[in-house]
Amino acid sequence: MIIERVVLNSRPGKTGVPVAENFRLEQSTIPDTIQEGQVRVRTLYLSVDPYMRYRMNDDRSSDYLQPWHLSEVADGGGIGVVEESKHNKFAKGDFVTSFNWPWQTVAILDGGLLQKLVPELVDGRLSYFLGAAGITGLTALLGIREKGHVTAGANQTMVVSGAAGACGSLAGQIGRLEGCARVVGIAGTDEKCSILVSEMGFDAAINYKKGNVAEELRELCPDGVDVYFDNVGGDISNAVISQMNENSHVVLCGQISQYNKDVPYPTPLPPEVEKIYKERNITREEFLVLNYMDKQEASILQLCQWIKEGKLKVRETVVEGLGNIGDAFQSMMKGGNIGKQIVSVSK
Question: CA separation (Å) from 92 to 21, 27, 125, 183?
């Protein structure tokens, strides 16, 4: 069977900025028949995420993330529909997902690595299972619950950087739902800041490209910061941590401002910020959502309930066509999107 797929065409280098040309669309073939335990799936949606920047380097790996190989198919979060099954848990027409979905139009996958989806949980909006009702939503919810230590009625202030992104836009809303009294977002355009306040319930938002972040934080967070959901690292995070209260908490979700730099993760703090961090007993621990998969089912149901009740607003940027996934990746890394970046492969 002839299919289309996207492979890693070149590496940007440790400090290079990813571009669409780092990926290549090509034709390939898969077997016409499947083996016992396998399913053939047609790809519907693919997720494009900041963590994938690490996979473009050939020397960064971990227990759960391995580098992409040159001229081999890329992979990530994906959703598809079963066209043929020789696995007892799946039948033709089932919708399924995987964290390691190949970037190709049709694939033969091990059924044991797939999860069956229930479209009714998200009123048929399947792509939500890659974002607000998937690993992105889980990261926001479990990050706040496991590392944010939000306590309802404690009059806590939360700050979210990268607040208009896939995870940040959910984290601010979830912080409010979990009990934060005040939520302030940091984003890179006036449009994003406006959406955070008018649509997603943030109390205020700072455009870091126009104002002085430290000064605006002092004005908007007069009682200091109790919870910081950190998506960006760098100068913005240094400004926030400098205004955090004693025994406060950093949810270390991502460091996108550092992804094109050859630095360790998490990025070390400057000496003056490190001093504040230690003196005020601020927690700042790396958070990996895959370590909390025992809480996945209950958490997904909670996220779906909030979505259906209208308490959790969802934004997606959808790009049509597998051949445009490189452009989608480049745009996402530049921070030009609001909400989750999704590539629609087929209907």
Answer: 36, 25, 19, 45
DSSP state of 242: T
CA distance 97 to 100: 9
Spatial CA neighbour of 279 closest among 251, 246, 243: 246
Q: Which residue from 76, 47, 75, 49 is spatially nearest to 344, judged by alpha carbons? A: 47
Tokens of 110: 């091990």
Neighbours of 344 (CB within 10 A): 17
pLDDT tens for 232-256 read: 989 999 999 999 999 999 999 876 5
Q: Residue 38 in contact with residue 97, Cβ under 8 Å? A: no
- The answer to whether 188 touches 213, Cβ cutoff 8 Å, is no
pLDDT 10s digits, 17-49: 999 999 999 999 999 999 999 999 999 999 999
Write the CA distances from 116 to 59, 87, 95, 121, integer angstroms: 33, 12, 6, 12
Residue 226: strand, helix, or coil: strand
- Backbone phi and psi for residue 233, each to the nearest 5 degrees, phi listed first: 70, -165
Pairing of β 225-230 and β 244-252: parallel
Spatial CB neighbours of 304, under 8 Å, sequence gap ≥ 6: 121, 122, 133
CB 26 within 8 A of CB 47: no
Q: Which has the closest alpha carbon to 54: 85, 18, 27?
A: 18
Is-above-0.85 flag for pTM? yes
pLDDT digits (tens, 9 = 90+) for 64-99: 678 999 999 999 999 999 999 999 999 999 999 999
Residues 163, 196: contact at Cβ < 8 Å?
yes
- SS3 state at 172: helix
Coil, strand or helix: which one is 21? helix
Considering only CA atoms, which of 127, 123, 73 is closest in space to residue 103? Answer: 73
